[in-house]
TrEMBL record:
Name this protein carries in UniProt: Beta-crystallin B3
Family in the record: Belongs to the beta/gamma-crystallin family.
A biological process term (GO) from this entry: lens development in camera-type eye
Role, per record: Crystallins are the dominant structural components of the vertebrate eye lens.
Highest taxon in the source lineage: Eukaryota
Species per Swiss-Prot/TrEMBL record: Leiothrix lutea (Red-billed leiothrix)
Alphabetical list of InterPro entries matching this protein: Beta/Gamma-Crystallin (IPR050252), Beta/gamma_crystallin (IPR001064), G_crystallin-like (IPR011024)
Amino acid sequence: ITIYELENFQGKRCELTEELPNIAEKEMEKVGSIQVESGPWLGFERQAYAGEQFVLEKGDYPRWDSWSNSHSSDSLMSIRPLQIDSADHKIHLFENAGYAGRKMEIVDDDVPSLWAHGFQDRVASVKAL
């Protein structure tokens, strides 16, 4: 992954192959754009992998709103590769808060439409296993 200090892949740049808990360690004030050669990676709003997180898959992110739809923050201060440690991974979606109500399990497939799988258009809680 390559991070740039300015939008549109301009300014100071830094290529990363491992986690970076604080972008200031690379003498950068902020991240303005990102190019992901292979991923996925997780970007975080604050240092030490804290705050809102952003999933960055292979591709170009020319400005902060291309990786975030957050209106409260335009910062990305730490980043790390997303690693799946097990072949046995799945996610459970629940209709209600507190892991209650109807449950949908997703194992390996993308689910572009919850309706197509008989689930409602609302997910109130999620468990990643």
